């Protein structure tokens, strides 16, 4: 009898709709995660439930209305399509599932389905290329926390990151093939931001991230650092595309305050525009599916910002979504585990 394998793909999540009530539910679950806002419990509850969510939900709902399509949330429909396509290329003894860390399809409901199948092995696969406690760490903790209560626990394999995987890199290189890089004055690699304290916590020697050459190389000391992995992804993609270092910048978007990873993407774009740069190509390799942060923040908000300071065009490189090369690449990663 052959082994039965279950694959749990995990994405971050999305509101069920752009209604304020649904956005409020999503933000509440997301921001109350202690790995996302890593401050004492009471302070987090007050900050999130009494300050951030009440004021942010109406504004975020407006942005989600811009993002929403006839098919719903791009993050959800691209991820669902990816799941179906990967299922079609994997061997028959693999079943592929999709869950969201926050909201629906919930991890509780999806893992309940998987439990009934009595798999010999489950592969937990958060779809976050670079490891961060607030994304991969939270998704893994949630999945394991549910599975630990099962009477029969199957063999588990966990994919905590794939920032350097050849299949992942190849897929982003292919996304860039539709653009003539010589037509752009500068190239940005924009990653989702994190508080500095969260990357500092990775380093067991007690020294801050800034003391570990994270921009230059992966070492035994910084191999789990989000910032180091972002820079490593950038090197791998830019080397394949022959983008000179003088023409690219690594930066971080979506910050909440000044104590987040720098340089900030918005400030970088302002500086580039004011220096005479007219056309910028933007990769966002922290995301494998287009979402609010790529389509709205980069594709719309940063375009307006750049133009208002003298620039002309911010061109987003499409994410991997459900493209066939990424489907094949993801299947290869799964089969290698």
Brief overview, please?
The chain contains 11 helices and 8 strands.
Textual characterization of the structure:
This protein has 337 residues and is α/β, with parallel strands linked by helices. The chain has 2 domains: 5-162 and 324-336, Rossmann fold (3-Layer(aba) Sandwich), CATH 3.40.50.1400; 180-316, Rossmann fold. Helix content is 45%, strand content 15%. The chain has 11 helices and 8 strands. It has helices spanning 20-31, 41-67, 74-89, 107-117, 133-147, 166-176, 196-200, 226-241, 265-274, 292-308, 324-336, and strands spanning 5-13, 94-102, 121-126, 155-158, 186-192, 248-253, 279-283, 313-316. The strands form 2 sheets. Strands 2-1-3-4 form a 4-stranded parallel sheet, sandwiched between helices. Helix 4 packs across helix 5 (133-147), helix 6 (166-176) runs antiparallel to helix 11 and helix 9 (265-274) runs parallel beside helix 10. The mean pLDDT is 97.
Number of structural domains: 2
* Major sheet: 4 strands, parallel
Question: Separation of termini?
Answer: 20 Å
Oligomer: single chain
In what range is the share of β-strand residues?
A: 5-15%
Q: Would you tell me which CATH topology of the largest domain applies?
A: Rossmann fold
- Element order, helices and strands? EHHHEHEHEHEHHEHEHEH
The secondary structure category is: alpha/beta
Shape: globular
CATH class type of the largest domain: Alpha Beta
Mean pLDDT: 97
Instruction: Quickly give the CATH architecture of the largest domain.
Output: 3-Layer(aba) Sandwich
Q: Please bin the fraction of helical residues.
A: 40-55%
Number of strands: 8
The gyration radius over C-alpha positions equals 20 Å
């Amino acid at each position: 009898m052959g082994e039965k394998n279950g694959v749990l793909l995990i994405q971050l999540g999305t509101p069920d709709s752009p209604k304020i009530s649904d956005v409020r539910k999503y933000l509440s679950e997301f921001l109350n995660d202690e790995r996302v806002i890593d401050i004492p419990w009471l302070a987090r509850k007050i900050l999130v439930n009494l300050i951030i969510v009440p004021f942010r939900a109406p504004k975020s709902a407006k942005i989600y209305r811009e993002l929403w399509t006839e098919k719903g949330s791009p993050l959800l429909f691209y991820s669902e399509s990816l799941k179906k396509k990967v299922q079609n290329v994997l061997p028959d003894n693999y079943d592929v599932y999709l869950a969201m860390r926050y909201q629906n399809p919930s991890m509780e409901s999806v893992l309940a389905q998987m439990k009934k199948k009595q798999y010999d092995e489950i592969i937990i696969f958060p779809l976050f290329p670079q490891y961060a406690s607030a994304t991969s760490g939270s998704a893994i903790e949630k999945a394991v926390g549910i599975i630990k209560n099962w009477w029969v626990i199957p063999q588990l394999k966990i994919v905590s990151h794939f920032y350097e995987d050849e299949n992942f890199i190849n897929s982003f290189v292919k996304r860039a093939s539709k653009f003539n890089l010589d037509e752009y004055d500068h190239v940005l690699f924009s990653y989702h931001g994190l508080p500095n304290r969260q990357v500092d916590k990775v380093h067991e020697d007690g020294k801050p991230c800034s003391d570990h050459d994270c921009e230059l190389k992966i070492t035994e000391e910084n191999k789990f650092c989000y910032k180091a992995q972002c820079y490593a992804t950038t090197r791998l993609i830019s080397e394949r595309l022959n983008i000179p270092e003088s023409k690219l910048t690594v930066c971080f978007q979506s910050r909440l305050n000044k104590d987040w990873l720098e340089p900030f993407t918005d400030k970088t774009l302002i500086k580039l525009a004011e220096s005479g740069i007219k056309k910028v190509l933007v990769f966002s390799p922290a995301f494998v599916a287009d979402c609010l942060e790529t389509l709205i923040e980069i594709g719309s908000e940063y375009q307006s910002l750049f133009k208002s300071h003298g620039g002309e065009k911010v061109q987003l490189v499409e994410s991997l979504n459900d493209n066939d090369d990424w489907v094949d690449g993801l299947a290869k990663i799964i089969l290698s585990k």
